[in-house]
Here is the input.
Amino acid sequence: MADVRILAIESSCDETAAAVVENGRKVLSNIISSQIDIHTLYGGVVPEIASRKHTERINFVVREALDTAGLSIQDVDAVAVTYGPGLVGALLVGVSFAKGLAFASGKPLIGVHHIEGHICANFLDHPELEPPFPCLVVSGGHTNLVRVKDYGVIEVLGQTKDDAAGEAFDKVARAIGLGYPGGPKIDKISDEGDPLAIEFPKGKVRDSVYDFSFSGLKSAVLNYLNSCEMAGKEINRADVAASFQRSVVEVLTEHAFEALEESGDKVFALAGGVASNRHLREAFEKGCKDRGISFYRPEPVYCTDNAAMIGAAAYYQYLKGERSPMSLNAVPGLAFGNNK
Amino acid sequence: MNLIALESSGMTAGVAVFKNGEPAGVYDINNTRTHSETLMPMLEELKLMTGISLSDIDAVAVSAGPGSFTGLRIGAAAAKGIAEALDIPVIPVPALEALAFRMYAYPGYICPMMDARHSQVFSGIYAFSSDKENDFELKLIKKGEAISLDEQLNALAELAQEKQSAFPVMFTGDGAKVYGDEIRKKAEFPFSIAPGFLREQDGAALAAYGEILYSKGLYKDAADFAPEYMRLSQAERLRKEADGDKSLV
Here is the structure.
């Protein structure tokens, strides 16, 4: 079969990204223009600013993706774009641009689910990885434990009932004065802290085996900080960070390993921005090794938001003949299994 | 010179194809706000029905703002994608000028107004002149900006007194409808409010005015084009306020 090259576009949050991916596995280019410097000024992503920046940068990013791949728009087989979930204004820029590009170049359009993209990031570095396998997607906006039954067939086992894990990292980091984005900063300072210093609650949900809840944990951290302040007790930020992180890592690994035990799968994959968290990764590496399970995670560059992962997911939709119409809209709360 | 025009700055989703100054097809939908779902299917339909070939298109005209932030971006991003694929430039068409241009050859002052919320309108003042060979040209009288209705009415009252125009001021745009009662109550000069079929944005005026801008060299590489919002995001405004910078609030 002839090679299939897909130009993919991603703009669901604060990264403007474009990539060309061959046959869903080989990355020919992967361009990411991050806006993090701007949003850091505001302590988090400002949707209107993100949307404006995407509009300013999208042509440059797409051009560079095609140039780096050594291709013109006429050489690609399809245009793929993230259409949800994410920030509606931000998504709309990528979706509208991709529709204009696909329409004018006569190429098919493929709308892709952002979380499916994160999961498929695992295919990029690992040609041997094939479904079925359970996958934990952890990022600033998402916490989903799923089982990939087949390409594009995803069963949701559990998800967060309130804050995403990454969101909890950001909020706790802000509370202890580490700044934004919180994940990498907490990961780093935790090395100097004692993870057993403070007993924070675990982000479990009663009667719901695989779901998560991180707002209670976040409140517990804030309450702890308040009570220390009231008592005039000095706060050890490294201990708080390490103890908080331990609590998050424990609930994520416990749920994932319960799911693995139940399904009997011998393969597990981690995905999303928080997959770059060293403590989380090490906990999974060890846990998988102990259980004889092959552990996969994408390279760090494919963990955070990028378009190569969208190109990987789009390839399997392309093979199934899935095409999106010119009426494709951004769907901020897009559920799994709704690909158009 | 052939062009595609995309209008999505307000309630209207409008697309048009013009060939050498003549409309080949115009398609407007005025009563929805789901531009993301309508604009591109409309263009697809228009292409099919007019039988135009995209390789004949020289530029994409698009409403450059002000207007609904999201609406502007739906049009802008689509235009940028089309222009990228066809390797042609984008013609950014100021939304207020396109609204004024719909009143082609009107002899009095034209005041397009778009509802900008926060007790403001996006508004400017324009007039047509016909100094060369009976061709009418749109002239800027007062620059478009986010402004209170009262301020704009005062500016128009001064202008009316100063110039003694024989013709009423023509209000147009959705702001003229939203603030119609207030205008009728407060305006102390002769005026008229444009009827619905001329009042709102449309693809044809955007295309026709876009073609004029193109002939003046006012087009851009798609990568360099972004909408002119005429207003900062709320987060930026609050930040400037906190910094004590009132000039941009």
Q: What stands out?
A: Residues 132-299 of chain A form a domain with the Nucleotidyltransferase; domain 5 fold (CATH 3.30.420.40). Chain A has eleven helices and ten strands. The CA atoms of residues 190 and 248 of chain A lie 13 Å apart.
